[in-house]
Write a structure and sequence with these properties.
The complex is a heterodimer of chains A (77) and B (575). With 77 residues, chain A is mainly beta. Chain A has a single domain, classed as Beta-grasp domain (Ubiquitin-like (UB roll), Roll), CATH 3.10.20.30. Helix content of chain A is 10%, strand content 31%. Chain A has a five-stranded mixed beta sheet, with no helix packed on it. The relative contact order of chain A is 0.31. With 575 residues, chain B is of the alpha+beta class. Among the domains of chain B are: 3-203, Aldehyde ferredoxin oxidoreductase, N-terminal domain (Aldehyde Ferredoxin Oxidoreductase,  A, domain 1, 4-Layer Sandwich), CATH 3.60.9.10; 241-419, Aldehyde Ferredoxin Oxidoreductase Protein, subunit A, domain 2, CATH 1.10.569.10. Chain B has helices at 28-39, 92-98, 138-149, 160-163, 189-195, 216-232, 234-243, 248-254, 276-285, 320-326, 335-348, 352-364, 373-381, 388-394, 396-404, 426-434, 447-452, 466-483, 489-494, 499-511, 517-537, 566-570, and strands spanning 3-8, 13-17, 53-57, 71-76, 83-88, 101-107, 116-121, 124-129, 154-157, 171-173, 182-184, 198-203, 289-292, 303-307, 313-316, 411-412, 415-416. In chain B, strand 16 and strand 17 (415-416) form a beta hairpin. Chain B is globular, with a radius of gyration of 22 Å. Classes of the chains: A mainly beta (77), B alpha+beta (575).
Chain lengths: 77, 575
C-alpha cells in the first residue's frame, strides 16, 4: 500500500529532489534510508535528516503525509 | 612589542604607549573588553567624552594562520547601555597587526562640529579634517579612500547614521575587493565613532615587516594542520563556500525555527525564494561571484558579490541573518528587494539585523504592509536623512517599538534577536538571554548541536543540556574572538579533537609562550567575567538576562515555548 510523503533535498544534494517531490509516493514501511537509496543519494552525504521538522535518522520509518528534508553538512550564522 | 595608539579626538593628538603587564598578552575581544572595563566609567553616557573605542586585532592576527584577521571593536554600547565587542573581517585588522599596533584607542570628543579622519602608515599617524566627506555613503567613502590612498588600504568608516549617532549605527569596513560589505554591526558602535567626529580611519601597511615568530617551524607546522582542518571539514570546506551563510535558510525553516512575521511561526512559505540555493542561482545567472574571502588569509570564503537584474553589482556579504531579518521576519520574498535593503544598510551604516527587525516592527505598528518590499526600501532610505521616521528606524528595533507603541518587540538588552527562534533552538536562546552583549547568536552559537549536529547533539526543544551548551560555547567564543579568528572556524574546531592544541601551538610559535588548551578556556572565562563586571557596574542585574514575555506563547509548527526562570538562566553564567 503506497503512502504519499513530501521529500526535499537541499544545497549540494538539491539535484536529487525528484520531480513532484511534495507529493511523492513510496511503499508503506519505507525507511529514510530506503527512500534515499531509491533516489540515488550517497548516504554518507546525507548528514542531516528531518522528518516533520524533527531531527531523525536513516532508520526512521515514514508515514503517510510525512515531510522529509535532507541536508548535507551545513553551517553559517 | 606591539604598542597602543591612543588618539585624543578633541585635541587631535596621538601617542604610542607600551601596554601594561595586565594587558600585554591580550588581543581581540579579550583586550577590548579588559580596556573598556579598566578605562571607561560604566555609568558614563555612551556618547560622552568618557566613553572610548578600542580597535584591536587578535592575538594571532598578522600571522599566516588561516582565518585570523578579524577586527574587534569594543566600547560602551549606546544601544544596550552595556559593554560591547563587535567583530568583523576586512583589511584593517591584518594591517594593524603588521604595523605592530596592538590597538587604536579613540578617546575624548570634540567640542566643535569639525570632523576628522585618521591615517595610519608605517612611520606616521595623521589626524586630518574630514568635513568634505560628511553625508557620504560608505560605498563612496571606500571608493574615494582607495583612489586617494591606494587600492587595498584598510578602510573603516561610518555612514550618515553614525554621523547622526543613531543607536543601531555600524562601522563598515572595506573588504579586499573594495566593497564596504563588512560590518562592525551590532550595538551601535558607529554612533560612538560619530560622537567622536571620526568619519574614517585608513590603515596602510606598506613597508611593514612580517610579524615576528618566536619559533617559526613550530608555528608553521601547527598553522599547516589548522588550514587543512578547515579545508577538510565539510561545513568550512564545502557548505559555506558553496552557498554562503544563507545555506541556513532552508534548514532552519525545515527545523521549524525560522522566525516568520515577527516571531509568530517557524516556517516561511517562501523560504526557498530567499534561500542560499536561490541566491547562488541568481549570482551565477547574473555574472556575480559565488564565493570570495572577506579578509586576508581566509580559506572559507563565504562572502559573495551579488548583482542586480541588469548585472550591476548590488551587494556583498549577503548574510543569512540579513536575509532572514529583511525576508522571513518581514514576509518580504523578493531576493532583489532584500539585497537592496542590505545595500542600503551597509551604505548608510546601520546594523542589518537591528534595522531590518525594526522594519518588521514598523509593519507590526501599521506604518507599512507586511511583505511590502518596495515600501520597506523607501522607509529604510529615510535613515540618515532628517526625516524623523528615518531616525526612529536607525535607532533599532527596541526604539522603533517604543515609538510606534508596539507590544511585540523581539529584543534582549534592547538589541534585536537574530534569525533563530529561541523556543525552537533553546541553546542559542539561552545565549540571547545571558550574553553580556544583548541578543546575539554569535556569542554562543547553540544552533550547532541543536540543529546542525556539529559538536554533538542536544535536543533543541527541551531544557536539558542547553544551559551547558550555551555556557561552553560562550566561553569558547570569547577565546576565539580574542585570537582574531573568524567564528566559523568553530564548526571545524568543535568536531576536531586536537583543534585547541593547534591554536595553543600557533600562539606558542608566535610568542614563545607555553600555553595549553586549558589556558585558552581560562582566557574565555576571564573575558566574560570582565564583561559581566562592567555590566554590573552599569546597573545590569539578572532581571536583564530575560527574553520578552511574548516568547511564552506557543510557537508553531512544534508548539514549543520559552519557560526558563530567571535563576535557571543564571546558571549559564556560573563557572
Amino acid at each position: 500500500m503506497p503512502i504519499i510523503i513530501s521529500i526535499n533535498l537541499f544545497a549540494s544534494l538539491g539535484r536529487f529532489t525528484p520531480p513532484g517531490g511534495n507529493n511523492y509516493s513510496v511503499d508503506d514501511e519505507t525507511t529514510v534510508q530506503i527512500l534515499l537509496e531509491k533516489l540515488g543519494v550517497p548516504l554518507d552525504e546525507a548528514k542531516l535528516v528531518f522528518v516533520n521538522g524533527i531531527k531523525s535518522g536513516l532508520n526512521s520509518i515514514l508515514k503517510d503525509g510525512d515531510r522529509v528534508g535532507i541536508f548535507p553538512p551545513v553551517g553559517g550564522g | 612589542m606591539s604598542k597602543l595608539l591612543r588618539v585624543n579626538t578633541r585635541k587631535k593628538t596621538f601617542l604610542f604607549e607600551e601596554p601594561g603587564n595586565s594587558i600585554s598578552s591580550l588581543g581581540g575581544r579579550g583586550l577590548t573588553s579588559r580596556m573598556i572595563l579598566d578605562e571607561v566609567p560604566a555609568d558614563c553616557h555612551p556618547l560622552s567624552r568618557d566613553n572610548k573605542i578600542v580597535i584591536a586585532p587578535g592575538i594571532l592576527t598578522g600571522t599566516p594562520a588561516a582565518n585570523s584577521s578579524r577586527l574587534s571593536v569594543g566600547s560602551k554600547s549606546p544601544l544596550t547601555g552595556g559593554i560591547k565587542e563587535s567583530n568583523s573581517g576586512g583589511l584593517v585588522s591584518y594591517k594593524l597587526a603588521r604595523l605592530g599596533i596592538k590597538a587604536i584607542v579613540l578617546e575624548d570628543k570634540p567640542e566643535d562640529d569639525a570632523w576628522s579622519m585618521i591615517i595610519i602608515k608605517k612611520n606616521s599617524v595623521e589626524i586630518l579634517p574630514a568635513d568634505e566627506y560628511i553625508g557620504k555613503g560608505t560605498n563612496e567613502m571606500v571608493e574615494k579612500m582607495w583612489a586617494k590612498y591606494g587600492d587595498k588600504v584598510g578602510v573603516m568608516c561610518i555612514g550618515a547614521a553614525g554621523e547622526q549617532r543613531l543607536s543601531a549605527a555600524s562601522i563598515q569596513l572595506a573588504d579586499p575587493h573594495g566593497r564596504p560589505g563588512r560590518a562592525i554591526g551590532r550595538g551601535g558602535l558607529g554612533a560612538v565613532m560619530g560622537s567622536k567626529k571620526i568619519k574614517v580611519i585608513i590603515v596602510d601597511d606598506k613597508g611593514a615587516e612580517k610579524v615576528e615568530m618566536a619559533d617559526k617551524e613550530a608555528f608553521k607546522a601547527a598553522s599547516k594542520a589548522w588550514a587543512k582542518m578547515l579545508a577538510d571539514h565539510p561545513v568550512t570546506g564545502q557548505g559555506l563556500p558553496g552557498f554562503g551563510t544563507a545555506i541556513l535558510v532552508n534548514i532552519i525553516n525545515e527545523a521549524g525555527a525560522l522566525p516568520t512575521k515577527n516571531f509568530r511561526s517557524g516556517r516561511f512559505e517562501h523560504a526557498k525564494d530567499i534561500s542560499g540555493e536561490k541566491m547562488v542561482e541568481l549570482i551565477k545567472e547574473r555574472g556575480g561571484v559565488v564565493s570570495e574571502g572577506c579578509c586576508p588569509g581566509c580559506v572559507i570564503k563565504c562572502s559573495q558579490s551579488y548583482n542586480d537584474k541588469d548585472g550591476n553589482y548590488l551587494t556583498s556579504g549577503f548574510e543569512y541573518e540579513t536575509i532572514w531579518a529583511a525576508g522571513a521576519h518581514t514576509m518580504i520574498k523578493d531576493m532583489d528587494d532584500i539585497a537592496m535593503l542590505d545595500r542600503i544598510c551597509d551604505d548608510v551604516g546601520v546594523d542589518t539585523i537591528d534595522c531590518c527587525v525594526a522594519l518588521g516592527i514598523a509593519m507590526e505598528g501599521g506604518v507599512i504592509e507586511w511583505g511590502d518590499g518596495k515600501a520597506a526600501i523607501e522607509l529604510l532610505k529615510k535613515v540618515g536623512t532628517d526625516d524623523p521616521m528615518g531616525r526612529i528606524i536607525g535607532n533599532g528595533a527596541h526604539f522603533t517599538g517604543q515609538a510606534l507603541g508596539v507590544d511585540r518587540v523581539p529584543t534582549c538588552k534592547k538589541q534585536a534577536l537574530p534569525a533563530y527562534d529561541p523556543r525552537a533552538v533553546k541553546g542559542v536562546g539561552v545565549t540571547y538571554a545571558t550574553t553580556p552583549m544583548g541578543a546575539d547568536h554569535t556569542a554562543g552559537y547553540g544552533v550547532t548541536a541543536n540543529i546542525l549536529s556539529v559538536g554533538g547533539t542536544v535536543d533543541p526543544f527541551e531544557k536539558p543540556g542547553n544551559i551547558d551548551l550555551s555556557k561552553n560555547l560562550q566561553i569558547a567564543t570569547a577565546a576565539v574572538d580574542s585570537a582574531g579568528f573568524c567564528l566559523f572556524v568553530a564548526f571545524a574546531v568543535l568536531d576536531t579533537e586536537n583543534a585547541l592544541q593547534l591554536i595553543a601551538d600557533m600562539v606558542n610559535g608566535r610568542y614563545g609562550t607555553r600555553i595549553t588548551p586549558d589556558d585558552i578556556i581560562e582566557l574565555g572565562k576571564s573575558v566574560l567575567k570582565s564583561e559581566y563586571e562592567f555590566n554590573e557596574k552599569a546597573g545590569f542585574t539578572k532581571v536583564d538576562d530575560q527574553l520578552p514575555a511574548f516568547f511564552k506563547e506557543q510557537f508553531p509548527p512544534h508548539n514549543v515555548t520559552w519557560d526558563y526562570s530567571i535563576d535557571e538562566l543564571q546558571e549559564a553564567k556560573n563557572f
